[in-house]
Amino acid sequence: MSDGATGRKGAPVRLDKVSFSYGEGEAPLAFDVAFAAAEITAIMGPSGSGKSTLLNLVAGFETPRSGHVLIGGADVSAARPAARPVSMVFQENNLFAHLSVEQNVGLGRSPSLRLTEADRADIAGALARTGLAGKEKRLPRELSGGERQRVALTRVLVRDRPVLLLDEPFASLGPALRDDMLDLVAAVHAERGMTVLFVTHQPEDARRIAQNVVFLDDGIVAATGKAKDFFAGAGPQAFRRYIGAGAGDAVSRDIARKRT
Amino acid sequence: MGAATLSTASPPPRLADTASRHPRSDPPHKGEGGRRASDHRIAAGIIALAAITLLIGGAFAGLLVEGAHDFSGALAAFDPYLLRVVRFTLWQAALSTLLSVIPALFVARALSRHPRFLGRAFILQLFAVPLALPAIVAALGILALYGRAGYFAGLFSAAGGQGWPGIYGLSGILVAHVFFNLPLSVRLFLEALQTIPADQWRLASQLGMGARPAFRLIEWPTLRAAFPGVAGLVFMLCITSFTIVLTLGGGPAATTLEVGIYQALRFDFDPARAVTLTLLQIALTFVVVLALTRLGVNVVGDTNLPVAPRRYLSVNRTETSLNAALIALALLFVAGPMAATVIAGLGADLGRLAGEATVRQATLTSAVLAFLSALLSVMLSLALTMARRALALNRRAGPSTLLEHATDTGAGFVLVVPPIVVGAGWFLLLRHFGDVFAIAPVMVVTVNAVMAMPFALRAVRPAYDAASERHERLCAQLGISGWARLRLVDWPSLRRPLATAFAFAMALSLGDLGVIALFGSDSVQTLPYLLLARMGSYRTADAAGLALLLGLVCLALVLAADRLGKEMARDV
User: Fold this and answer.
1) Do residues B120 and B110 touch, judged by C-beta distance below 8 A?
2) Bridge pairing between strands A220-226 and A66-71
3) What three-state secondary structure class fits B373?
4) Residues 6+ apart with CB under 8 A from B46
5) CA separation (Å) from A174 to A178, B3, B225, B241?
């Protein structure tokens, strides 16, 4: 258990004066923001504000034009995606369609699927943990949309990296299913304490599990703060406009309900 | 599953332990660049392009060396005979195009007016067969039906009042070209008609539009848009057709450039003339392909079977019977030579043929060469596909580079240089270095591989791009690369499209007579070459038997390709 603590403790993530553009003539994006270790931060903002780009920069799918991406204090700007201490769950296509649930999860442990007996035991344990016991041999097409995302989260467990990036992973699920999945994320977070960056369009999602909010607007970080302050109406004007007029009432009512 | 398992209660301890036993949270930076996987793919594409360039470039080198060597001879080849050959090449192609495309318009329309009737799917399937049939097989089928000793000879003689002369020459070439290109055009036009949105048909039937206004306002605009493309494609195919003209054309009066090249090299041995003919052929196809790309035509054609959507229209009885007659005529025309091939083939002494050492040897040679050719074709296609995708991924939004263009549209331009032309170039180059005929297997494999490549690309590329779209980020994220990626990700998703491409490439290569006609000899014979030899020595029954064998094998391959392609579409 000596270095188990490293797996349990999330690493802080920092974008240090990062600038990025998708090409000549495209609007530049500029991020200068820090994400607290071991906490869940919701990244919100209108479409095109750069939420997914921010996650892609942290994951290594995009390379900053200038500035640095720091994870756990180390500069990872030049590292390959697989070499970074992060796991990411996408909105879709998280699984290989021709591989079984077990294999898809196993890829989180070994990218060439060379698994030891101990690995297999861990995978079975993780699948049981996420409620997928008995579905090890299924193919993704034999699962529901919710179950597929659950497999992706199981792989996150098995992979066990200190940072988890969620790019609207539950956007296509119904409300009840989404709540289940959010609870699962919260449970995994409570257990592992990783740093979670959670891109979502749904204020309820953020309210339900996030401690912090980072609000993006037009390619820059427009505001950051505690989630409870944001949803108590203390967020900036642009954020209140984004979640809609009168949302403040709904928010307080919802929070009240959740706390009962 | 269920919410019950989601409680935040204490997790099983071993889960927390996994991190200690597998401290796999890799060090955050490794210092190495991020694009190694794509470099492999780009390198593969560059190797493939280099190989193709070598093949085509070598042919051009041969032509230029020969031309420079005997420049006055090449110039002297511009004689009245050459002009006649060029004129005939264009004339037969133009006539073939008209005779194929115009009737196809009406047959396609008739088929689209009746989206559901018994046998419709069968007719469309049958119309796909000529695509698979080697030209020499079709030529034999046509001779068996309409030739001087054909099944219809008695009928035609009785009708004409004199002996039926057979259909050698222009008439034979036209019949064969229409046999190949009418069904192709019908399928292409039908596909165009089926892009008309169902809502337009609903609207038409609600407004009470009859057949005539529906044709004028709905069908004709679509057909007119598709017309230049289809006609251009057919013209291109007819201008580069070799086997048909060789087997059905009669003497110097009915010779095209491609056959002229063959004769100059194999019979007259007049290299200077061959150079001139070849350069003219290249110029001609280049102009046609350029015009086609201007029109936005896909030069490779299509092998998809169109599916009929539900239509909302009523067709009156007169039109129905007219359409039925039209479809029946087209069906008879296309099915006739196929039936003749089967009947004539069954009439041959198949048992003796199968026992003949030459036939066995040719079959074996054909199988091995076609297998290797298909393998090479698929490998080239895959390499180009991977490189193109990797380049596109690296580039993101910027303009595409020359290399990406080369791996993309460049590959289609190999069609500008017909197999005979490549063969002729190498023939001229290699004759300075020894026995031209010894190199036959290499030429047959490589040239046919490159010629089948545009078709193989069509099967492989969409599947690869779609798989890459789904898997690229996931692989990068999980660190799946190299051999593991090939084994776990690429091979499972590409197995079927690769098999489709392989089967199709093998069928094309198996039936080809272009390259082997130049390089074939008694020591290296393929089935089509042997078939041509038997035809030449008037052993018609033998030829018919071999044609049946060759036709069936090619058909089986293309059906397999089609089937694999369909299963693929279902799986995704």
Assistant:
1) no
2) unpaired
3) helix
4) B387, B403
5) 6, 14, 45, 59
Residue B30 clears pLDDT 50, i.e. is over it: no
DSSP string for residues in B310-354: P------HHHHHHHHHHHHHHHHHHHHHHHHHHHHHHHS-HHHHH
Interchain CB contact of B570 with A (< 8 Å): no
Taking CB atoms and an 8 Å limit, are A186 and B489 in contact across chains?
no
At B244, list the tokens.
């048909």
Cα B275-B276-B277 angle, rounded to 5 deg: 95
Judged by CB atoms closer than 8 Å, whether chains meet at B484 and A162 is answered as: no
Does the distance separating the beta carbons of A93 and B398 come in below 8 Å?
A: no
Give the one of A99, A129, A132 whose C-beta lies nearest to B11's C-beta: A129
Q: Among all residues of chain A, which has the CA nearest to that of B34? A: A80
* Residue B241, both tokens: 């057709």
Per-residue model confidence as pLDDT tens digits over B203-237? 777 777 777 878 888 888 888 888 888 888 888 88
Give dist(CA B130, CA A43) in Å, integer: 59
Rounded to two decimals, the pTM is: 0.76
- State yes or no: ipTM above 0.95: no
Compute the count of residue pairs across chains A and B with CB atoms less than 8 Å apart: 181
Q: Which amino acid is at B563?
A: R
Determine the Cα–Cα distance for residues B179 and B145; give it in Å rounded to an integer.
13
Which of B10, B8, B223, B11 is CA-nearest to residue B110?
Answer: B223
Decide if A81 and B19 are in contact by the 8 Å CB cutoff: no
